[in-house]
Amino acid sequence: MAQSYKELLNNVKGFIFDVDGVLTNGMVTIYPGGELVRQMNIKDGYALKTAIDAGFPVCIISGGSNIGVRSRLEGLGIKDIYLGVHDKIEKYHEILELHNLKPEEIVYMGDDIPDYPVMELVGIPCAPQDAVPEIKAVSKYVSPIKGGEGCVRDIIEQVLRVQEKWNGKFYAKFD
Amino acid sequence: MAQSYKELLNNVKGFIFDVDGVLTNGMVTIYPGGELVRQMNIKDGYALKTAIDAGFPVCIISGGSNIGVRSRLEGLGIKDIYLGVHDKIEKYHEILELHNLKPEEIVYMGDDIPDYPVMELVGIPCAPQDAVPEIKAVSKYVSPIKGGEGCVRDIIEQVLRVQEKWNGKFYAKFD
Amino acid sequence: MAQSYKELLNNVKGFIFDVDGVLTNGMVTIYPGGELVRQMNIKDGYALKTAIDAGFPVCIISGGSNIGVRSRLEGLGIKDIYLGVHDKIEKYHEILELHNLKPEEIVYMGDDIPDYPVMELVGIPCAPQDAVPEIKAVSKYVSPIKGGEGCVRDIIEQVLRVQEKWNGKFYAKFD
Amino acid sequence: MAQSYKELLNNVKGFIFDVDGVLTNGMVTIYPGGELVRQMNIKDGYALKTAIDAGFPVCIISGGSNIGVRSRLEGLGIKDIYLGVHDKIEKYHEILELHNLKPEEIVYMGDDIPDYPVMELVGIPCAPQDAVPEIKAVSKYVSPIKGGEGCVRDIIEQVLRVQEKWNGKFYAKFD
């Protein structure tokens, strides 16, 4: 691909994130009833909210299903939350159609084999530092930051900075 | 500024702390109902209590709101707990007036963009080691310790040591 | 032993895992009623499910007992879950008989002294990076990964790759 | 002191441990009602149980108070659990009398200022790697392991090995 990394980021019009290992560190706390409880990062939350406020569709696709996770993500203003998804490719195509987006306009960040098929299709596949080797190999950008520790903030902030949509007045001072 | 770092600390008469990423490591556990549960550090708690016992106003300003956090901080003796705050600058000015303090007498420790506007105004802006770059750039002191791992203890202990208010009899032995 | 490590893995027909320090990082959260709550890793979960789908008996033997852990492991499709086990050797022999397996066909991963007696008997004793020295000394493979951080994924993935049962189409691309 | 470290350990007849920052990593999870929930390490638990089985008095003194912590420690067979203690020195003298022990026969592991007065009195004061500087300075042994990560196991195992009471048959093989 002849395009530079910065040019790629300039094309981005939407984000799709996996949950476990991306928005979380991949650990689940096992409640007495077997329910799986996750941890997320406030710094990621700030970036997700900023992207939505800047008008980007932000979508979540996860094989897991959890009412708490949905509630947290809705609280950040995310509307496209698809949990318990078995066919991530089908959902990906729905998202493209729903938001009238092209593959090269999409950042998808995933960390494990179930993300692989979608990441072959999407324009800008990304991964946290601790993704499995297969996922890192197929990614155009591997964050230096691990899942749950701010890798989502990292890629959102980079896209919004390139497009001059990151925190208005702060942008000029730091970039 | 011609003043040395030690002189700055000698001027301190009050502390203001952010919660997420400062008193916590920035992670939130997402309960089934979507409630966000935090973790704090007992070593920070000891320092907060010591500062209050030494007569310092210790104030908490957080954009988040959580009944458990309030209960924990009240248990340490903190009275000025402002949660769910959208305009941190307004609250900052209220604190100055309430405690009759000047900006150069205040330590404020924050870690992310929402802390930035206040940190431009306060006399001694500080940050944990893992604050975002913008916040570290505006800080007069960046702790070598991460959020939730004792950065609050670090700055409180430094101020109280300079002012010879840290643990009476132990002070002489270790400093 | 004249066999190479790869030959050993080729012989594997079943897996046995300890829970604390192997499927978890060895920490337990102490609930108000004294109940112990564990954390597990989604990447390990993916590997456990893949091994079961590939037809391997996957067995869990733990001295601890916890209804949430059982529920989580059952959700991954594991049927042989033995919790609250005081005599791991007896249970090990039952598993051999139940699944008609020989010692040299078994991977057992443990991390602490209670695993030692079984690990002397099993064909391929393994350990996470942070197992106690006695266990590492008796192991034929010590994962570079700590308990709860993916050591279970590591050994399962290695066995399935050697036997060409790891993720079908992905296998060809990455190994 | 002319005695070697190994001689000191040979004298040990009882253990006293602080909770926060020693049996835990110093973090507390803040429940919605403000209750503080701790995490402990299964490897420490194994060592505590082994020490008790070998006949050592094992005592817990903590300024904090928590019903879950009590339940967990009782489950390991610990009988001397003193929580919510404000005067650790008074409790220390009670323990000496109750078990007919002399100061030089006691290991005490603590991590922060409230442990300091007792650690000046006890024969073998110890600390985890991440104790505060004052505590490390007064300690005869600083474990290379952090609080909650196995520092309790470290000191118990060392004492029991020197006294040839660590895991009978395994002892011969590994030491």
3D architecture notes:
- Four copies of one chain form a homotetramer.
- A six-stranded parallel sheet of chain A has the order 6-5-1-7-8-9, sandwiched between helices. In chain A, strands 2-3 form a two-stranded antiparallel sheet.
- Chain A is globular, with a radius of gyration of 15 Å.
- In chain A, 49% of the residues are buried.
- The first copy, chain A, has helices at 5-10, 42-53, 67-75, 88-98, 116-121, 133-138, 151-162, 168-174; strands at residues 14-17, 27-30, 36-37, 39-41, 58-61, 80-82, 106-109, 124-127, 141-142.
- Chain A has a single domain, classed as 3-Layer(aba) Sandwich (Rossmann fold).
- By secondary structure, chain A is an alpha/beta fold.
- The longest helix of chain A is centred in the N-terminal third of the chain and has 12 residues, at 42-53.
- The model of chain A is unreliable at 171-175 (pLDDT under 50).
- In chain A, α2 (42-53) runs parallel beside α7 (151-162).
- Chain A contains eight helices and nine strands.
- The A-C interface holds A 20-21, 24, 26-36, 64, 112-114, 116, 132-134, 137 and C 29, 31, 35, 37-43, 46, 66-72, 74-75, 148, 150, 167, 170, 173-174.
Question: What composes the largest sheet of chain A?
Answer: 6 strands, parallel
The main sheet of chain A orders its strands as 6-5-1-7-8-9
Tell me the radius of gyration of chain A: 15 Å
Give the CATH H-level superfamily of chain A: HAD superfamily/HAD-like
Uncertain segments of chain A are 171-175
